[in-house]
Structures are given as structure tokens and as C-alpha cells.
Amino acid sequence: MRKELIKAILPLMLLFPVLVQAQRGGDGVYEFLNLTNSARVAAIGGNQVGMTDADLSFTYHNPAALTDTVNGHLTLNYVNYFADINYGYAAYARTFKNVGNFSAGIHYINYGTFDRADEYGTINGTFSAAEYAILMTYSRMLSKRFNAGITFKPVISNFENYHSFGLAFDLGLMYISRNKLFNAGLTLKNFGSQITTYNETTEPLPMDLQAGMSIKLAHAPFRFSVTAQDLLNFDLTYTLPDDENSDPIEFEDNTPGFGDKLMRHMVFGFEFAPSKNFYISGGYNHRRRKELAVDAKASTVGFSWGFGFRVYKFRFAYASAKYHLAGSSNLFSISTNLSSFGKK
User: pTM of this prediction?
Assistant: First the structure.
């Protein structure tokens, strides 16, 4: 087992010298790859790389979460975002004995239609903006306890007359305990490069190293999870220049301490599942709260909740994630096992 584990993490070790120079969020292209599209994942904080279950949506966050438990599964996710922006994700998985697990899907975001105007404000028609990522994932068990996976992601981005094409990859590793109550995962996301650029300037992709774990109580219907994200940069705080001729001003009244900086990496979640056909979940994202809350009234910014249930052979899920006092993001998911149809 030790040899298999070394083989799994060796690619991450070889890439580490390059990754430590990765940019912070918002400094690169294809940021839509970091959006949460699954209602279940959104409800437990917006990210989860250390959980594997009969849920194909987990594969989007960690390719090693793809196991034979989702053989024949189809998942459809839709997100009603802000300002008429919509995005979603669809995927299907198959398992082939002695070969491994495969899934194919598409993640898209539609920014809507905009007015095209010249420098004088004259309207000259409209234009649209959208981005797409095609996801092809392969995984297989390295041993009885470790599963490894890789996702290949061609990316297409169109903004009016500006177009870009890129190639991105995810690498993942998942540990599954003998009793399947404890899981731990590690994933390197979105490493790759632009192939064609918007304006002859190559920009970096939003690479990220993430680790997480989940534990399900043996004699109670609760599951708890935690994910550490943005591990390539410890200090995620930043300043906002008032203008070019002034000094930067901090978003916070006080300089963030070590504890605050550490917490900005953490995403916490829990699930209460009294049966296999129903669950209620909740989560907390500290970074989201610190960056998007208003000082005068933080309210429930950074918190999320959701539920899921099964009807016949379909599973439905809903989540509400509070990003700002202006409103919440609503996520809807539906999934089914196509292999189950036709069976009595």
C-alpha cells in the first residue's frame, strides 16, 4: 500500500515548485471553474474534497471521488446566480471491470446578454458572454483503501469578440476507511495553460491545492466534513486601493490575525440523514463571510443550508448559499441511476 500511495502523490510533489508561485483568486482566467454547481456541496459550505458517496457531483471537486458506487448515474445541476447569470453542470458515469471508472460532463456559465455601446454611449446592438468546460474523468482503486483520479478539462471562453481556449487538469487522491465511515481527500485543481488568449497576453489558470476529510458517526445519522482550500497561499487577506494616488485601505477595521487567516482556508459542513432517502445539511465558509459581509450587518453571510430527498428512482436536492445581504444563490440538483430503469 505504501508504494501505491507514493505513486499517487508523486505527481503533486513534482509539480509543487511550480504551484507555490500560483496566483491568488481573481488574478487569472477561467475563474468560473471554482463555482459550486452541486446543491449538496453548496449546502455544506461550497466545497468538499474529502467525501465520497453515491453522488456523482463530488467528482467535480475531487476526481478521486469517482467510484463504482456511481456506475450508471446521471446528474443535472442548475444554479440561479446573481444579475441574470446562470450556470450548471451535467455528467454521466460508467464503471468497467478491471479497467476503472469513467465520467464525462460539461460545466457552463451564461453571463447573459449585454448592450454594445461606443465611447459616446450609442447603442450598437447586443452581445453575449459564456464559458464552457468539458470534463473527462478517470479513476481507479490503487489499493483497498486508496482511490486516485484525474480530470481533463478543455475550456472555451467567449466574451463578445474576445475568445480563449485552454486546457486544465485535476489530480485527486481519496482514502476510504475499512468501515467507510471516514474519508480523506487531496486534490490539485485547475493546473494547465491557455492555448489561445484573449489579447495575446497569457494569463494563469486558478490553480489550487485542497485537502479535506469527512466522518460519519457509526451510531447516529450525522456526517461532519471540513475542507482546507487555497493552500498555495496562506495569507488570503488583501487591500483595495481607493484610487491610483492614494494608499491602499484594508477591508477590515483591524489587521487580521493568524487565526483569521487560517480560518479563511476552512469550509465546514454537516449532514443529518435519518434515512437513505432524506437529508438536511448546513455549512459555513469563513472566507466568504469576511470578504462579502457588510460591517454594519453581517447577517448570515457565509452560511448555507439545504436538503435532499428521493422520489421513486430520482434524487432531488436544493441549497441556499448566502453570499451577500443583497440575496442568496439558489441551487437545484437532480440525479438518477439509469442502470436501475428496466429492473424490477
Answer: 0.85
